[in-house]
Design brief:
Blueprint lengths: L2 E3 L1 H10 L5 E5 L3 H15 L9 E5 L5 H9 L8 E6 L10 H10 L5 E6 L8 H4 L3 E4 L5 H14 L3 E2 L1 H11 L3 H12 L7 E2 L1 H8 L7 H9 L3 H12 L6 H23 L7 H12 L11 H9 L4 H18 L7 H13 L6
Parallel strand pairs: 1-6, 2-5, 2-6, 3-4, 4-5, 7-8
Helix pairs in contact: 1-2, 3-4, 6-7, 6-8, 7-9, 10-11, 10-12, 11-16, 12-13, 12-14, 12-15, 13-14, 15-16
Length: about 350
């Protein structure tokens, strides 16, 4: 039995099919791992008997004997039970427990659903992938983030309009933990089945259209300095936004604009720059870097027309200096340091 699924496909499978005997969860998104575990539990065990038929253990607390006892324990007043063993990278490669684990994976119990998780940045183990349903929980791109937000709202008992989900993502960014906290905040006041729009999100999150982090990035990249200065306090006050995150996001944008400028300087048609950049990023397989943005390529293409290469390099140096200052233990005024950077960029000679 070998399968490799992402979050969306695993979610659909657990909604329409009986749970598999073994799931192997890998990838960097720990929150998504927890959500898959919740889905497996809901599909396997009745809520009334979950206290007796749901065990979660850290791998480091188990040896071969305790692992065998855990997975072979019969369910109580139910057909199946769920066992979760987290962070199997805690087992040394030559630990005796692996022999027991591999033996179990060859012939898993019919009355146990085993979920194994691997920590962040750990390479999936082939010998487990080949014997389990492998769910790779990597960072979501923009489209899938929107789908995840709406799905979490649905599970929380309300519905989010498309524009409300889009605004929430723009305000909070792609950190799923922060997004989950904001969705839970809405759930605490939304009526059952209520359709929640942008106005309700604005009232809760406190950021209006045109005043999000991405709006600020757009203003800086297009050299609209008055706008960047005016909305900076609102952007810094948003949930999950820090000065370091602002500069990191801006740095990515400036690198994108630098790439677009290079293509222009090589004689490429301005009308085709957006598509050229998109293909270059896809070839480099670095699209994950831009998952917080709906479509940064069009913005980079537009911004390339208002900078020359030397100016972008100067802006990148200003951003780098600001990042170093923000990470200094002696700096507490994020707004002042970022404002200083923006004003420094405003003094860079405007492209002809």
């Amino acid at each position: 039995m070998a399968a490799s699924l992402d979050f969306d496909s695993a979610y659909r499978a657990l909604k329409r099919e009986a749970p598999a005997p073994v799931y192997y969860l890998t990838g960097d998104e720990e929150l998504l791992k927890e959500e898959i575990i919740d889905l497996v539990l809901a599909a396997t065990v009745d809520p009334a008997s979950q206290d007796f038929n749901f065990d979660v253990r850290m791998a480091g607390d188990l040896d071969g004997e305790s692992f065998h006892s855990l997975v072979e324990t019969p369910p109580m007043l139910a057909e199946r039970r769920v066992v979760v063993v987290k962070n199997i990278e805690l087992w040394r490669k030559n630990a005796k427990v692996w022999k027991v684990v591999h033996s179990y994976l060859e012939h898993p119990s019919h009355s146990t659903v085993l979920v194994i998780t691997h920590g962040r940045e750990q390479k999936p183990l082939r010998e487990i992938v080949s014997r389990a349903v492998h769910v790779a929980l990597e960072p979501l791109n923009h489209k899938r983030q929107l789908r995840w937000i709406k799905l979490r709202a649905e599970r929380s008992g309300f519905e989010l309009r498309d524009d409300a989900a889009e605004h929430l993502l723009k305000v909070v960014g792609g950190d799923l933990s922060l997004l989950a906290a904001e969705v839970d905040k809405v759930a605490s006041i939304a009526a059952d089945g209520e359709l929640v729009g942008v106005d309700e999100i604005v009232n809760l999150v406190g950021v209006r259209h045109g005043e999000t982090l991405h709006d600020w990035i757009e203003a800086v990249l297009l050299r609209d300095i008055p706008r960047a200065v005016s909305i900076l306090p609102t952007v810094l006050a948003a949930s999950g936004v820090t000065g370091v995150r602002i500069i990191a996001t801006l740095g990515t944008g400036l690198i994108g604009v630098r790439l677009a400028r290079a293509y222009l300087d090589d004689g490429n048609s301005p009308a085709r720059i957006e598509g050229t950049i998109r293909k270059a990023v896809q070839r480099a397989k670095t699209g994950w870097m831009f998952r917080d943005a709906k479509d940064p390529y069009g913005l980079w293409a537009r911004a390339a027309g208002v900078w020359n290469a030397r100016e972008i390099d100067a802006a990148l140096r200003a951003a780098y200096e600001c990042d170093k200052a923000l990470k200094s233990t002696t700096v507490s005024d994020e707004r002042g340091k970022i404002m200083e950077m923006v004003l420094k960029m405003s003094r860079i000679e405007v492209a002809a």
